Amino acid sequence: MLKKAYLLIKSLTYIEIFLSPVAILSAQNLALNKSTASSSVYKKVPGLVPGPNLLVDGNANPTLSMGHCYHGGDPGGGPNWVVVDLQGSFYVDYVYVFARNGNADRLDYFIVGLTSINYLAPASNILRGSYAMCGQYKYKTVVSARHTLKCNANLVPAYRYVIFQQPATGPGLFTICELEVYAVTNLNAKIWKRYYNNRLIGNSFKVITVNDRMRCMIKCLPGECYSVNFRQNKSTCELNKHVNGYALSSLNISLEWDFYEVQYA
């Protein structure tokens, strides 16, 4: 089943533009029962070792004592990461992250990265900003809830390992009750998500003049460009490069500008 190309879906804060037909196919959780590793494991849960294997056991029960949640032991500003080996290279479309029934701030603004480096070996260390950025959750999380993050669709090539990490400003004790990872079903179907009156600062590598926003998006090529800023009244298009992500503080309110991120449909 296909949706018509250039279908527009509007909301109060953004608009999504489909640049090609969208195939609706069944999805499979690539992370289920796969190998995992973490920067630490919390040692003070009575009768339980809340290791990273619990992230991918297929049970999202949000109660820590039930034995289905990962609980890290790093302090605030520490490594606070987990990694999943998908056991094959995939273009990742989106991830689901399931929160515990308490301490939601430990998941706030979580980061999802992609890499081809095997960090499952003991003593591995994953540094923020050193891997391709699927994306960063732009909001505070909610207890006992599923949170969805779409990956940037201009990342190339496909990746084998998925990283989940708390931002450096987080409180530590990184805790997640389940992770699910889903691959792209149609590499040619993409969405441009628009943030009204916003502009990403400090990531532009090229500024061009174009007649409309669609031409601006077409100039943003996979592997080179990951988002755009567009100013309608001046026909100004800024192409942004941030393969390792950008600071959420760089996305600023800016009248007359709109910020667009590319995702898979």
Automatic annotation (TrEMBL):
InterPro entries: BG_Antigen-Binding_Lectin, Galactose-bd-like_sf, Pan_app. Residues 193-261 form the Apple domain. This is Apple domain-containing protein. Pfam families: PAN_1. It comes from the Eukaryota.
